[in-house]
Amino acid sequence: MPLPATTPSPLPQPPIASAQQLAGRDLLTLTGLTPGAIGELFQTARRMKSDIAPYRRTLDGRTVILLFEKASLRTRITFETGVNKLGGTALYMDHSAQRLGEREAVKDYGKNLDRWVDCIVARVYSQRLIEELADASRVPVINALSDRFHPCQGLADLFTLWERPGGLRPGGRRLRLAYVGDGNNVCHSLMHAATMLGVDTTVVTPPGFEPAPDVTAECQAYAAAAGSTLRLTDDPEGVAGHDAVYTDVWVSMGQADAGGKRRKAFADYQIDADLMAVAGRGTPSGAVFMHCLPAQRGVEVTDEVIDSAASVVYDQAENRMHVQNALLSHMLGAPPASR
């Protein structure tokens, strides 16, 4: 569940106006970026995806440590593989059995790490912990998932839409994106990225599972600045006329669901072929289906939808590596022309 609205999104420094300003900076939430910086990251990611060869020495001599309290497939493999492709060294620390801060203070942990490594990638339970780690460390810290945000996923999601024919303005109109499910960390970062980039966004949740009010307020401001819209509803039919439909698991890792209460609350919000048909009404080519994975097949989405030609879930998974490579390149590396 989202944390209370009294916990603000961190803004330790002014938002980054261009990708070049990422050098040495943290990425704890997408509120640290601007639309211009995200657009430049996407351009870099597209070049890397097309041909990684010019970037093979970008992280030459650099070491990136991955601190993971939560299990992972996509996050771990995309970061490890990406760092290796860029010529760096990736180290993995499994903190699933012993959480960060239990053996020694997070402050001491961060101050030790910045003597040895060039970047810290942390996948943790608490946003407060990752902020404490960033405060303690002199090297960049990347949020690879917390209870509040999943910024790398949000970047990969919007990059996946941006690289498709027509991009974020198919036929010259604004793209429309519907998120259906829990107003969780994935939803928060998706909202940030979409509203920043001028995507008309609809968030569909059961009553009581809405995104955090402070995140919603931030995204309303982003949408107003971009000339787009943000709408919250509890009606699954709210997906009508959208270019993309996104969902996530109903019970996230570490959450309890005593008596299956969450599943009961979400029972009417499954993405099936009928709901996808509703979403695609009035769109040029129908709606695509998105999911950050792992998916609970037959729960939040049917096999028919996730395995359909409209599904872009594996594009999203691949694109995690490309946008993270772009992020690491701008944070730690130098462009190929300067080498």
In short:
This protein has 339 residues and is of the alpha/beta class. It has helices at 35-50, 74-85, 106-113, 127-136, 151-162, 185-196, 213-226, 261-266, 273-280, 303-306, 313-332; strands spanning 63-68, 89-94, 119-123, 141-143, 176-180, 200-204, 230-233, 244-247, 288-291.
> Structurally, how many domains make up the residues?
2
The portion of residues forming beta strands comes to 5-15%
CATH level-3 fold name of the largest domain: Rossmann fold
Task: Please trace the helix and strand order, writing H or E for each element.
Answer: HEHEHEHEHEHEHEEHHEHH
> How large is the count of helical segments?
11
Strand order of the largest sheet: 7-6-5-8-9
Q: What is the second-level CATH architecture of the largest domain?
A: 3-Layer(aba) Sandwich
- CATH homologous superfamily of the largest domain, by name? Aspartate/ornithine carbamoyltransferase
Feature tags:
339 residues; alpha/beta; Rossmann fold; 2 domains; five-stranded parallel sheet; disordered N terminus; disordered C terminus
